[in-house]
Structure formats: structure tokens, C-alpha cells
Amino acid sequence: MLGKVYKGLVPNGWNVAIKRLDASENLEEEFVSEITILGSLRHQNLVPLIGFCAARDEQLLVYKYMPNGNLHEWLHTTDDKAKLLDFPLRVKIAVGVAKALTWLHDGGNFHVVHSNLSTQSILLDENFDPKISNFWEATIAKQNDMNSSMSLLPIVEYLDFTSYKKDVYRFGVVLLELLTRKESYQLSCSSLNLSSSSFASPLDVDKVLLGQGFDAKILQLLELASNCMKFIPNQRPTMLQVYLTVAAISRIHDQTGDPEIQ
């Protein structure tokens, strides 16, 4: 959503990010979607929406402040910033994003498709834990036992599998950005060497990551990204399958052993 973001301090000591929507744009529908969907969800890898204001021509959204900004800035602003993102940290980010999308797709009494995932919508807290933001294009499918308190949400009867697979595709793009530092518009399966059994084209991968003992894992992640970005949606994996694969590659497992993390 178009608008300026300000940093603020609230009485309880929290730093907050206040997004002031552009009054010249007709963003009422997006504003309501962000409030009703993100405002009703709580997960460790979603950015907390803690308040809003709608008065006359003013529309404000108040989020918990994320001191490390968005992932896009770290990957694409300067080489020095990108160098701080070593392979384990990039995989940690990928695992967190996959975990959140898995929970959104099959979180119990609701199913949510984000529809707008990108490195710009992935915020990073002080520990570089990823937080997905920008839910203004999201859709939620109702369940028979859905709580009545969610009745204000933009709910549809069901989400067909192609809706979920759009999120899978976008996750594949994010994963490639993490591995190559190429902009999303530069990425496609045909433009990268994703089918080879070796690094026949190592220039596709961020040079900072190569030769550090992670080359085999990098190739596995490139192959996973390729599967996520397959042209035919039903050939792409589910987000649960993606999460399990990324977690296995990274050797990061939730302590509960449950891949659908609350």
C-alpha cells in the first residue's frame, strides 16, 4: 500500500511503525483487508498489527517496529549489507517464511492465502527473525466451525489449490533472491542453471555464499526453488512440503517436532 512510514514510541515503551496511507489513493478496501486479516492473526513470523486509526481523510496502521527493515534492502542496497547475511542466516529467514506460510495455508479453523509475498514484504526484527507483512491482498477461506468473531473478515467459501500455489511460486522467487541477490524481475527457472547436478554456472549464486562449505545445500535449495516456480501449479509442492524440505536442509527443527507451528 502506498504511504509514508514513521517511527514512534508508545507509552508502554514499544517502538512502533506507523504507516500513513496516501490520501490521494483509494485504498479503503486494502486498509480494511489489512486490519481484518492481519489484525486477527498471531504468529511468530507475522508482523504484529497493534492498532489503526480511520478518521476523515486519515488512515493509519500501527505495527510493532522491525529494527532491521525489510529483506529487500539487505539483499539489494549495498554489497556490505548483503555480506552480513551469511548462508545460515539466509536459511533461517527462509525457514521462518516457509513456517508462516504453512501455518497460514493450514492453520486450523482458517486458511489464508497471502498473495503478495516478496522480499519487500518480509520484515526483520532485531534477531533477523522474519515477519511477513502486507496482507492487503490476502484472502481467507471459512471453515464450518469458524469463530463468529471472524465474521467481519473478507471470507470466501473456499480457496482452490491454484490460490495456494501462487504463494508457493512467490516463495520460490524469494528463495532465489536469497541465494542469488538478483531482483525478482530477473528471476525465472529458464534464466538460472537449476537442473544441473553441479554448479556449471556459479555466477547465478551470490559469490559470498560459495566456497564456505554450503555448496551442496545451496544446490538443494536452488532445486527446491525451481520446483516452487514450475509453470503448472499442480506440479508445485505444498507449503508444508516446502517447509519440511527447507528445515531438513538447514537442520533447523521446531522443538515440538510439529511442522505446522503455532
Protein described:
By secondary structure, this protein is α+β, with helices and mostly antiparallel strands. The chain has 2 domains: about 60 residues, Phosphorylase Kinase, domain 1 (2-Layer Sandwich), CATH 3.30.200.20; about 180 residues, Transferase(Phosphotransferase), domain 1. It has 7 helices and 9 strands. The strands form 3 sheets. Strands 1-2-4-3 form a 4-stranded antiparallel sheet, covered by helices on one side. It has a 3-stranded mixed sheet with strand order 5-8-9. Helix 4 packs antiparallel against helix 5, helix 4 packs antiparallel against helix 7 and helix 6 runs antiparallel to helix 7. It is globular, with a radius of gyration of 19 Å. The chain starts with a strand and ends in a 12-residue tail after the last helix.
Per DSSP, the total helix count is 7
Corresponding CATH architecture of the largest domain: Orthogonal Bundle
- The CATH class label of the largest domain is Mainly Alpha
Count of separate structural domains: 2
Neighbour order of strands in the largest sheet: 1-2-4-3
Q: What's the overall geometry?
A: globular
Helix content: 25-40%
Order of helices and strands: EEHEEHHHEEEEEHHH
Question: Looking at this structure, what is the CATH superfamily of the largest domain?
Answer: Transferase(Phosphotransferase) domain 1
CATH topology of the largest domain: Transferase(Phosphotransferase), domain 1
Q: Strand tally, please? A: 9
Q: Supply the helix-strand structural class.
A: alpha+beta
Low-pLDDT parts are 148-152, 195-202, 253-257
Subcellular location: Membrane
Protein name: Probably inactive leucine-rich repeat receptor-like protein kinase At5g48380
Domain Protein kinase: 1-249
InterPro entries: Kinase-like_dom_sf, LRR_Rcpt-Like_S/T_Kinase, Prot_kinase_dom, Ser-Thr/Tyr_kinase_cat_dom
